[in-house]
Every structure is written in structure tokens, then in C-alpha cells.
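Data availability (excerpt). The following record was deposited with the supplementary files.
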Amino acid sequence: MKKLVLIGTILLNSVAVFAQKAPKYTTAKDLEAVFSYRPDRKIPLILAHRGGPQASETENSMETFRHTYQQVPEAILEMDVRMTKDSMLAMLHDDDIERTTTGKGSLKAMNWAELKTVFLRDLQGRPTRQRIPLFDEVLQWGAGRVLMAIDAKPGVDLRKVMKSIADRKALHSVFIICYSTEDALSVRKEYPDVWVAVGFNEANHGETLQKAGLSLRHLIGLSARQNREFYDRLHRAGIPCTVSTFGPGNLDEKPLSEVAQSYQTFFQTGADILTTDRPAEVRALFTK
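Predicted structure:
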């Protein structure tokens, strides 16, 4: 009898573990429930810049993506995609690989066989035993359960990026950062339901986008810190907005105790998504 109870307990625990790991973002409605503008949103979405590495961690790495996901499962992991000379999609912010790896040279001038031999450096420049991940590796890990913001750097073949996302059934796990209206239109032509994020320097930019043929549905506005009127105008069009808190002189560079209220103010003014280098700490400010 005890054996039967033990077996039953193991089976129940296995079911529970499986349920926890079940995909959460597999339909358009799943993603709409997260990204769509909601006036009653109590907590901002947290976008982990380059995966949200801490000082001892590496940016755009599987290890950091996993760690941030463990700390803040609902965070959006921002990641940078570049293309090698032999058209492999790899995760790295800079084309020059020297800052973030133990190698030297231009990523776009190197084959994947060369790149996969170098090691990543942490944020303090110390070499690790971690390797540059392929984009496909990240998609395979995150599709359906992790929110991802895809920053395909200029010169990268967006069609190849989108095909990789579609092949891994990750279309409802991502939004695509587009550097131009043309890029956004190109992505939407083949994938009409995909969420795209474009820069907003003017509150009326949405009208310009519509005139160019881009639907405001499933659109995210990327902007610097703005006033309430700016955000209100985008919100009336149903567009959620981001604000960045990383970079020299910005909030992430200052002691959290000194700027905690400023993060709150950004959200209260109208920023729906906070893009930060310290996702777990910023998230905690809104869950106390």
C-alpha cells in the first residue's frame, strides 16, 4: 500500500512539473493578453536588456537568459541577432566581437566554425567558459514559454530571422524590433499577426505609419521618456509604449534606493514597458 501511495505521489509531482513547463504563449490571444494596452495595468512589463545580465554574467547568452527567466518568468528577454559570413544567425550585440568575446574581428566577416571556438566575456570583461549561442538554440529553448524581443541588427536578413521563428513555432512568443517602416511592412506582409516595435519620436507617428500602410494592431511604440500627453495619444490608438532606463546617466546606473520612485513615476506617466539592465530588482519595486 505504501508503495502505491509513493508511486501515486511521484506521478502527481511529475504531472505538476510538466504543467509548470507547459507552453504559455502559443496563440495570438496569449500574446495579446500580455502586450495589448490596458488602462488598468498595475505592474509594468519588464524588458530585460540583452537578457538582463548581472555584473558577473554574459550578455545575450543562454546562461543569462535562463537565469533571468528563473528570476522573472514573465520578463521579456531582449536579444540581439547578427548573421555570420556563412549566413548563420548568432546572438551578439556588436559586430566587432572583441568586447564580448575572447576573439577579435568582425562577426559578419567570420564563419560560424570560427565563432563557435571563442568564449564569451562577462560584463566586467572576464573570460568565461560560455559560447556564443545560435539564434535557433535560443528559440528552441524559449518558444511557447518565454517572451522574447528580437533585435535583428541592420544588415541581418529579416526573412531568415522570421523563418527561424516560424519554424520553431515561436511567432506567439516574440515581438520584432524594426529599424524602419519598410522593415515592419515587410515582416507584416508575410506574418500579419506578428507584434512589431518601431521608434516613436512624435506622438502622431502612428498616423504616418498608417498612411504608409502599417496597421497599428499588434504594434509597440519604442520611445525615450515622454510626457503624459504623448503616452495618452498612443494609448488612445491602442499602442503600448516602452521607456529605457539603461545607459550612461540613466536610472539603472544609480543606486536603486535613490531612484526607486523614478521607476514608479515612469510607469505612472504612461510607460507600459520598462527596458532595464536590472529586471529582477525593478520588477520587485512593483510587487512589494
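Summary of structural features: Strands lie at 45-48, 76-83, 89-91, 147-152, 174-177, 195-199, 219-222, 241-244, 273-276.
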